[in-house]
Amino acid sequence: MFTRRTRMNLRSGSLILALLLAGCESNVYVEPPPPKVTIAQPLMQEVTDYLEFTGTLDASERAEVVARVAGVLQSMHFEPGTQVEEGDLLFIIEPDEYQADMQAAKAELAAAQSNYDRADIEYARAQKLFKKKAGAEADVVKWRVEREISSAEILRAQAKIARAELNLGYTQVTAPFSGRVGRDQVDVGNLVGEGEATVLTEVTRYDPIYVYFNLNERDLLRVIEMIREDARARGLDPDNVDRGEIEVPLFLGLANEEGYPHEGRYDYADSAVDPETGTLQLRGTFENATKPPKLLPGLFARIRMPIGNRPDMPLVTERAIGTDQRGTFLMVVDAENSVERRSVQTGQRIDGLIVIEEGLQKDDRVVVKGVQRARPGRKVDPDTLDMAELTTSAMKQAAQAAEQAARNERSEATPPAQESGGEP
Question: Mean pLDDT for each 10-residue chunk of the chain (424 residues)?
């Protein structure tokens, strides 16, 4: 027979066995739910292909203002660094000497004119006497020569007056064209123009402004072909196109600017490719009418030139693009909500989105949020988003709208100030 202790041990063992069996049943593996991700189909739009360059800005006109006559610098009539117009007075060189030269030249002209008049009268009288056989032929010849000499002296005196007027005009130094005037390089009271053309200041034109950049041989051939295609599209002869008939736009951005906010046009190209560098120098022109000007000579610039359009190109947000040892890829979700790694080739950036050159179709669903949770071959729980909402402009507008809503909410929550005055 079982003793009481034995029965108790049997009961305890049965209880432990039941607990162990129950524990085994509760440890059955349960697959976790698929991770949450956000997907979007690529934004399809026409894409403009560009060539990108770096270049340097330069003034469209620059001139040194020099002293063209010798003399003491009498006065200055401008503020350095300001805008001047063509013909504005900049300096005056002491004019007294040149005014005296003018008076002397006029006096010489008056004397020459008087000599001519006398010789002309004497010549006419000598001719009359000679015809009446009352005078000598030598007198006729003498006064004819005197008249011709006086006529030459008149021409010489007139030339002296013209030169004197020119030199007197040079004593007033004016701006050769409209632009920004530099600092005065010679102080008032100094002798200038003595034996050399003394530089007084410099005038620079900023509007329009030029940008110079170099085009390599391969891109040059692409641009030539683009111009020929544009000519065909306009009904022109591609083998006989003048520069003014086809306008090539350019876009420019400075180091501190986002994108290429300045629009201009191609203006000039060198006559030959440099054989040492294999490049051709081009020039673009841009309006620069703001005061002060936004574009200054010597600044580094980024330039891009459109060379063609491609319709229906897919664009995705940059946050969806990954890179590993095998290259650039996207995580794409199929109809079964399984993740696939898709190798792609990327292109230019447009409004915060990246053009996908190869590897993506318009109906593909791309993981744009939660990319770290997406594993190839695994299922996900996707939420759908419009790719257009991820452009830089759309996100900026959304942020501005949220900020405005927050301001409105704060203003509504703030009680209006109680007007003072009167008894409570």
Answer: 53 56 57 89 91 93 93 93 92 93 92 88 81 77 84 91 92 93 92 88 94 91 84 76 77 91 91 89 93 91 90 92 92 92 90 91 92 90 90 79 79 62 45
What are the backbone dihedrals phi and psi of residue 351, each rounded to the nearest 5 degrees, phi first?
55, 45
pLDDT on residue 393: 79
Residue (of 81, 66, 75) closest to 188 by Cα position: 75
- Enter the tokens of residue 178: 């409209």
pLDDT of residue 314: 94
Is 263 exposed, middle or buried (CB count within 10 Å of its CB: 0-12, 13-18, 19+)? exposed
Instruction: Give strand pairing partners of 173.
Output: 91
Residues 200 and 184: beta-carbon distance below 8 Å: yes
Contacts of 146-150 spanning 24+ positions with Cβ under 8 A: 146/115, 146/119, 146/122, 147/116, 147/119, 147/120, 147/123, 149/115, 149/119, 150/112, 150/113, 150/115, 150/116, 150/118, 150/119, 150/120
Tell me the DSSP string of 117-178: HHHHHHHHHHHHHHHTT-S-HHHHHHHHHHHHHHHHHHHHHHHHHHHHHHHHHHTEEE-SSS
DSSP 48-111: EEEEEEEEEEEEEEEEEEE--S-EEEEEE-S-TTSEE-TT-EEEEE--HHHHHHHHHHHHHHHH
* Contact indicator for 75, 173 with CB cutoff of 8 Å: no
Q: What pLDDT sits at residue 354?
A: 92
